[in-house]
Design brief:
Rossmann fold; 8-stranded mixed beta sheet; Glucose Oxidase, domain 1; 7-stranded parallel beta sheet; 39 strands; Alpha-Beta Plaits; alpha/beta; 4 domains
Length: 785
């Protein structure tokens, strides 16, 4: 923490700037975050939280005009455990003054923006492929189940059976967290499974867009750790939920619902609402989680693709950096903006970034036409339609409202359909307009009092949409054309949509999810992202009871305790659960060792023995699936690991272009950057994968990358290298043999890349070290230009 003398110096500097005057572009106060780097090794030079808060208040008072002191002289949040800083209402002018003041501890000042949520059988599938449940059961007998997962999300529904604490031992004595009460949340809602629950102002409680926000928001009776969105409950139960037998979603996806590490403890940090997650609340959640003593943090949240932040302005990157520095892994969802390149989120190298895949289960609904033909489509609908009765079938353009362009009615855009023409019919809609989601089309047709909707689209057809009780089914273009031809071939086209049925043992699986965001990373292409892939399509997990949404509960049924959701939000907690298992077996491993173990042992073949694919049927590459699908049992004994150290991350910041002043504030060290600090050198940090953003075909010499591995297996081991490279890209390894004698834990090797004959663009391959028992696989991506 900066000394009081430094803060007083900053206040003097600010006063000078105020006297000199800085041009004002916007005088409307808005929430800002002032990030001031790492706390000291003693954790608190200023003393208590109260003293730190007082210092921040003094700083705030120095820039707020006296006439606004009573109204705005208060902090929304202050951070003083893992890192330091605060959030407060500032004008753009005041934020500029803080940025320009030149204090060594102010790293960045940025608007308190809203980040978005990235919203069973999956673990059974991983059991079939990798044996994770056997491993979990075996190791739970021998180790303490005291791994604590911090879930930063929308809160928790404590009554969900996934958070039962039956058979779980006493709460670890090292736990320093709390269970905060609310008007609808009691201390008794926490137990030996759900050991902590906090909440913070969310975008529904405050204003991120400029109007007044009360710093006490979230401390009033309107605040609570309780989840009213479903997202936080679903992700928490996926990561560490207690086993619940006979779980299902109204009969679909039946079986035992459980988390990846069922004996893990869960601490919930509610920093998000349905609207999103404020930067300042996310940072406060990180700060509290690290103070409380969590072991792993799971964050299924990310910035909008159009507003990707610089790392020092990104609350998740900031929080995750300090977590990593304190030995706490942070797993994050990669985003749902696929299948396009350069859409991956949460790309800092100290974050474990997760892509989404399918599992060996599908959900489909049958369309039966009046001529007897049937088509299977993707769906999760709980309709009560039967084969006994069919209904008039129409194309959207044929029930268009007056003066509506045909294009809009074909796409079932809002306001494009005539309710008198559409009522009582099944409406066919197409997908020529990507700005109109499946959900909106369904709501448009449902609002017309139509019977159901047939949606024709190739996009996301392998990701079943949950339409509740309203009949909905999605088919591809081939089936869709036949349905449209039927409509045009008869005077009285008719159809029905049958309720969803489950398709077990579906092949091939896993497949990269259509929606899963892809690399390379915009911020730093010399780090390969995503890192790993995990189940994220149609995942059954705990939910909140839905009683206020018409059509969400079938007539005569009680609200479901489990729901089926898709997204990288669902894949992230799978990795969190797997990492928790590894942490329980290897408590001394660092986050980077756990990350390396999961990456280098990842599965790259599906359940028919072929290389992993994406929805199109083409082979998936590392920009789509990272190192491959998690294989937690193999990751327990990886043989070798890549340890990415704090020094590696600080060099990354140097190579990325940050100043030594900022890096020293961020790390609270006297770290000096290498004299040659350029972005190309990012490829050299000791990461479990390799990415080269620019390999010139005209280079006369090969580009060489160095890596260092740590032996975590048996001593006296010898590993032999094997390279899989695309035609034309020459990849050599030196030495080709790593011999770990007794007492030798670390060895280094070089990998050279020569691309004179390689095709332009990204080339993908892998390097595998094999000792007869362990296969340590490192994927690489090389952009030849």
């Amino acid at each position: 923490m900066a000394s009081l003398l430094q803060l007083l110096h900053l206040i003097f500097s600010i006063s000078f700037l105020l006297v000199c005057g800085i041009a004002t572009s916007n005088q409307t106060p808005k929430p800002y975050v002032v990030y001031m780097g790492s706390t000291s090794s003693s954790n608190n030079e200023l003393g208590s939280d109260q003293v730190a808060e007082s210092a921040y208040m003094q700083l705030l008072s120095s820039i707020i005009p006296s006439e606004d002191q009573n109204e705005r002289r208060s902090l929304i949040h202050h951070y003083n455990h893992a890192f330091k800083g605060f959030s407060a209402m500032l004008t753009e002018n005041e934020a500029s003054i803080l940025s320009a003041a030149g204090h060594p501890d102010i790293v960045s000042v940025f608007p308190d923006s809203v980040l978005q949520l990235h919203t069973t059988r999956s673990w059974d599938f991983l059991e079939t492929e990798t044996g994770i449940l056997r491993a979990s059961a075996t190791y739970n007998k021998h180790v303490s189940s005291d791994v604590i997962i911090g879930m930063i999300d929308t809160g928790i529904w404590p009554e969900c059976p996934s958070f039962n604490d039956k058979g779980i031992g006493e709460i670890p004595s090292r736990w320093k967290g709390v269970c905060i009460e609310g008007h609808d949340f009691k201390l008794s809602n926490c137990n030996r499974k759900l050991i902590g629950a906090r909440y913070y102002p969310t975008p529904e409680m405050n204003s991120i867009n400029g109007s007044k926000m009360s710093p006490a928001a979230g401390k009033t009776s309107s605040g609570s750790p309780r989840d009213y969105v479903d997202h936080g409950t679903h992700t928490a139960s996926t990561a560490g939920g207690f086993p619940v037998v006979n779980a299902s979603y109204y009969g679909l996806a039946g079986g035992t619902a459980m988390g990846g590490f069922p004996s893990a403890r869960i601490a919930s940090y509610k920093a998000c609402s349905k609207v999103g997650c404020s930067s300042s609340s996310l940072l406060k959640a990180f700060d509290d989680a690290l103070k409380d003593g969590v072991d792993i943090i799971s964050v299924s949240i990310g910035a909008d693709n159009f507003f990707l932040s610089d790392y020092k302005n990104d609350p998740i990157a900031i929080g995750a950096f300090h977590a990593e520095n304190m030995g706490v892994m942070v797993a994050c969802s990669g985003g749902n903006d696929g299948p396009f390149s350069y859409t991956i989120k949460n790309t800092a190298p100290w974050i474990f970034t997760v892509a989404a895949s399918s599992i060996d289960r599908d959900f489909c609904s049958t369309i039966q036409l009046g001529n007897g033909k049937t088509f299977r489509g993707s769906a999760i609908n709980l309709s009560n339609l039967t084969k006994k009765r069919t209904y008039p079938l129409v194309f959207g353009k044929d029930v268009a409202s007056n003066f509506t362009p045909t294009y809009e009615a074909r796409n079932c855009r809002p306001g494009s359909l005539d309710p008198e023409k559409a009522a009582g019919k099944i409406v066919v809609c197409v997908d020529n307009d990507p700005t109109i989601s499946r959900n909106i089309k369904k709501l448009v047709v449902e609002d017309m009092e139509a019977i159901g909707i047939i949606f024709i689209s190739e996009a996301e057809k392998d990701v079943p949409y949950d339409s509740g009780t309203f009949p909905f089914v999605q088919v591809g273009s081939v089936e869709g054309l036949q349905i449209l031809n039927y409509i045009n071939s008869t005077k009285d086209p008719r159809a029905t949509i049958l309720p969803t049925v489950e398709i077990p043992r579906y092949k091939p699986a896993p497949v990269v999810a259509y929606f899963s965001s892809r690399g390379p990373a915009r911020q730093a292409e010399n780090i390969l992202k995503p890192d790993i892939m995990a189940p994220g399509v149609a995942i059954l997990a705990g939910t909140i009871p839905r009683t206020d949404e018409p059509g969400s509960v079938p007539v005569g049924k009680k609200p479901a305790q489990f729901a089926i959701r898709s997204g990288t939000s669902m894949s992230c907690p799978h990795v969190t659960g797997a990492a928790s298992l590894i942490k329980s077996v290897h408590p001394g491993w660092t986050p980077s060792m756990i990350k390396s173990a999961l990456m280098t042992t990842a599965n790259v073949r599906d359940n028919v023995g072929k290389p992993l694919t994406k929805g199109s049927g083409k082979s998936a590459n590392p920009h789509e699936m990272g190192a491959g699908e998690i294989s937690p049992l193999k990751a327990l004994h990886p043989g070798l690991v890549f340890e990415t150290t704090t020094t590696d991350y600080l060099r990354f910041l140097c190579y990325y272009g940050y100043s030594e002043k900022d890096i020293r504030s961020i790390s609270n060290t006297n770290f000096s950057c290498p004299s040659n600090s350029i972005k190309e050198l990012i490829s050299d940090i000791n990461y479990p994968s390799i990415s080269i953003a620019n390999l010139s075909r005209n280079q006369t010499a090969a580009k060489t990358i160095q890596r260092t591995v740590t032996n975590v297996g048996l001593s006296n081991a010898t590993y032999i290298a094997k390279v899989h490279a695309p035609v034309g890209l020459v990849v050599d390894v030196f030495p080709q043999k790593l011999v770990f004698l007794k007492g030798v834990a670390k060895l280094s090797y070089n990998v050279s890349f020569f691309g004179k004959e390689a095709p332009s663009g990204y080339n993908f391959g892998s390097l595998t070290w094999f000792d007869g028992r362990h296969s340590v696989r490192t994927v690489f991506s090389v952009n030849v230009q």
